[in-house]
Amino acid sequence: MPQNRSGGGLTATQQAAKFLGVSVLSGVVLAGIAMPAAGALGLAAKGTVQGFDEIPANMKRPPLSQRTQILDSEGGLIATVYSRDRKVVPLEDISPYMQKAIVAIEDSRFYEHGAVDLKGVLRAVNRNAQEGGVAQGASTLTQQYVKNVFVEEAGDDRDKFAQATQQTLGRKIQELKYAIQVEKELGKKTILENYLNITFFGQQAYGIESASQRYFSKRAKDLTLGEAAMLAGLVQSPSRYDPVNDAQEATKRRNTVLERMATVGDISRAEAERAKAEPIKLNVTRPKNGCITARDGAGFFCDYVREVFLSNPVFGKSREERAKVWNRGGLTIRTTLDPQAQKSAQDSIKEHVHQDDKVATAVTMVQPGTGKILAMGQSKPYGFDKNETQINYSVNKGMGGSNYGFPTGSTFKPFVAAAALEQGKPAWQVYPSPYKMPYPDSVQSCSGTPWRNVGGDTVENENESEVGPYDLRDAMAKSVNTYFVQMLGEIGMCPVVEMTDKLGVVMGDDEKLPEKPSALTLGSQGMSPLTMAGAYATFANRGTYCTPTAIESIRTTEGKNLRVPRSKCQRAMSERTADTINTLLRGVIDSGTGQEAGLESRDSAGKTGTTDSRRNAWFVGYTPNLSGAVWVGSPTQEVKMEYITIGGRYHDKVFGGRVPGPIWKDAVAGALEGHPAPDFASVPIGGPQQPQVPGKPGDDKPGRTGGGGNEPFPGISFPSDLLSGGNGNGNGNGNGNGNGNGRPGGGGDR
């Protein structure tokens, strides 16, 4: 006995019968599924569709996922990325042959019936009864479109995809109701347009425009009769009828479509026979998806843009929400990448470091005053083969970089100098700077609890001939370790911590620097080239730090401009301090450890850095209008760069000025070719009248100002062992607390 709903009215079964327009539902085939005679009508049963009245009246029609184009600053294409290769086009941009072919083979009565083709249903019932199974379906083009929308909405969610494609009565009834709504709202032409844009044609091509480009390298509006018939035939089974892998099956299927078009009167019999006689002539364009296809080595920058999008709340509240927007695609992303700078960086990389070398290099360039990332490249290409990688050595771990970054060595010393200058130390400050000395007994920290040298850790200079006293200019040019340890001992660690915070300096794992003297003087902690280039850009910008930025604008297919993150600029130090650092770092290039990096036609400044055992070598430098960081080393930190060939050149010892310096020079020179060459604002670095110290062999100057010998300086008190060079015997473990040779682990010297 049928059960009535509360309040009267038709039962769920009766409603379904009325909806389908079929008086006897048993045995009916809905879109290819034959309903069993018994048990199929329990619509309210657990595991089936909801009560018929509860099915939503309006179907969501999400924007179709499309290609996203990532462009450089001049509008040139860097790469095309997509989860589904699709370009939506209007119906007028689709060949009439294609429109007729898809209708003829998929739903020849499309323009005659509504959402449900009752004749088709009955025909399918009869055929399936004869065959004893499901031999023929009855889905209309509209129903197929609805199903594709569900699939599109599921995206990469496997559970949702399974639900969208499950062959159940409940799913088919839901699709039918939505199909009626779609027919009412959109009309036949729009449905056909939407269907041709959403359908999968195989070979990673979604939509007719991408399919036309994939198989024939032409626009959909230019498809011939035979080409259109072949593509229309793919829809039923893209893998079975794939012309790339089985031309014979594809030809048979194409001819079936042509025959059907002739039968329904879309083309003449003669046209069909002529098209059948022609072989399928493919002109395949292989898929070019993702950052791996980027030109001029910009794959890592491309990947960085994706990471910026997925990590920045400006594009969505959660990462999941942002990922949906990214995967949907259809965006045109204009970036900050300068094509001239990028090409110059990559050319320099290829000249100096080979892909199969034991070590790698990474180069990053940033524009002072804007934070725009102009170039980002490395010697190990973006890829999955030998001597390729997906790790971006230029950025922090959270943005696709290495786990910890790379120890920076003496490139950290300008941060100490800037902090000291901000504390009122004069640019001509002199310290004894012996060849070797213990770290100070205690150094003040931000927490108020001093760091104490309980293990007797020591520090030494690169060469035994490096014995002070030195002033700041000479100490910076020669990269004297003991000088900067003494400077830190006097000003304390907190000014350096505050300075690095203002400069955006964090470790490669995005953690703050530890308050340890080795970390805050000699660069024992790992950092990324982007971090270093951004921080040094502050000096070029006369003391104002701007956060690095990669995206200029984003436009949707509808022409809407999305909000994008902007660089945030703040003053990190006075102009006087920045100008003083610029003057000091010009000396590094003019007469110090960075001479091989000097540019001939414009002002430049920079600092070298080499870490213990020569596992890392750096040069970070800048002009008034460009800042760049170059790292060379082993990504695994296992290679000691001694007696090594890099880029076809043999080196007994690698240091910051010898390999990274020339890379920087060539990259920056090419990036700035044809651009203005402004000068730095120089600051005279004087000092009190003190006796000249006789020059030692190898000095770059015959003498320098400062106190004589190892005598104490007025107003400065040092332990006697600091003045004599000390007798430290550090035995730390290389983690910043000293190591077997008395130097802090990872510390820099050059």
Automatic annotation (TrEMBL):
<dbReference type="GO" id="GO:0008955">
    <property type="term" value="F:peptidoglycan glycosyltransferase activity"/>
</dbReference>
<keyword id="KW-0378">Hydrolase</keyword>
<comment type="similarity">
    <text>In the N-terminal section; belongs to the glycosyltransferase 51 family.</text>
</comment>
<comment type="similarity">
    <text>In the C-terminal section; belongs to the transpeptidase family.</text>
</comment>
<dbReference type="InterPro" id="IPR012338">
    <property type="entry name" value="Beta-lactam/transpept-like"/>
</dbReference>
<keyword id="KW-0511">Multifunctional enzyme</keyword>
<keyword id="KW-0645">Protease</keyword>
<dbReference type="GO" id="GO:0006508">
    <property type="term" value="P:proteolysis"/>
</dbReference>
<dbReference type="GO" id="GO:0008658">
    <property type="term" value="F:penicillin binding"/>
</dbReference>
<keyword id="KW-0133">Cell shape</keyword>
<dbReference type="GO" id="GO:0009002">
    <property type="term" value="F:serine-type D-Ala-D-Ala carboxypeptidase activity"/>
</dbReference>
<dbReference type="GO" id="GO:0030288">
    <property type="term" value="C:outer membrane-bounded periplasmic space"/>
</dbReference>
<dbReference type="GO" id="GO:0008360">
    <property type="term" value="P:regulation of cell shape"/>
</dbReference>
<protein>
    <submittedName>
        <fullName>Penicillin-binding protein</fullName>
    </submittedName>
</protein>
<feature type="region of interest" description="Disordered">
    <location>
        <begin position="592"/>
        <end position="613"/>
    </location>
</feature>
<keyword id="KW-0808">Transferase</keyword>
<keyword id="KW-0328">Glycosyltransferase</keyword>
<feature type="domain" description="Penicillin-binding protein transpeptidase">
    <location>
        <begin position="362"/>
        <end position="633"/>
    </location>
</feature>
<dbReference type="InterPro" id="IPR050396">
    <property type="entry name" value="Glycosyltr_51/Transpeptidase"/>
</dbReference>
<keyword id="KW-0573">Peptidoglycan synthesis</keyword>
<dbReference type="Pfam" id="PF00905">
    <property type="entry name" value="Transpeptidase"/>
</dbReference>
<feature type="domain" description="Glycosyl transferase family 51">
    <location>
        <begin position="77"/>
        <end position="261"/>
    </location>
</feature>
<keyword id="KW-0961">Cell wall biogenesis/degradation</keyword>
<dbReference type="GO" id="GO:0071555">
    <property type="term" value="P:cell wall organization"/>
</dbReference>
<dbReference type="Pfam" id="PF00912">
    <property type="entry name" value="Transgly"/>
</dbReference>
<dbReference type="InterPro" id="IPR001460">
    <property type="entry name" value="PCN-bd_Tpept"/>
</dbReference>
<feature type="region of interest" description="Disordered">
    <location>
        <begin position="675"/>
        <end position="750"/>
    </location>
</feature>
<keyword id="KW-0121">Carboxypeptidase</keyword>
<dbReference type="InterPro" id="IPR001264">
    <property type="entry name" value="Glyco_trans_51"/>
</dbReference>
<feature type="compositionally biased region" description="Gly residues">
    <location>
        <begin position="725"/>
        <end position="750"/>
    </location>
</feature>
<dbReference type="InterPro" id="IPR023346">
    <property type="entry name" value="Lysozyme-like_dom_sf"/>
</dbReference>
<feature type="compositionally biased region" description="Low complexity">
    <location>
        <begin position="686"/>
        <end position="696"/>
    </location>
</feature>
<dbReference type="GO" id="GO:0009252">
    <property type="term" value="P:peptidoglycan biosynthetic process"/>
</dbReference>
<dbReference type="InterPro" id="IPR036950">
    <property type="entry name" value="PBP_transglycosylase"/>
</dbReference>
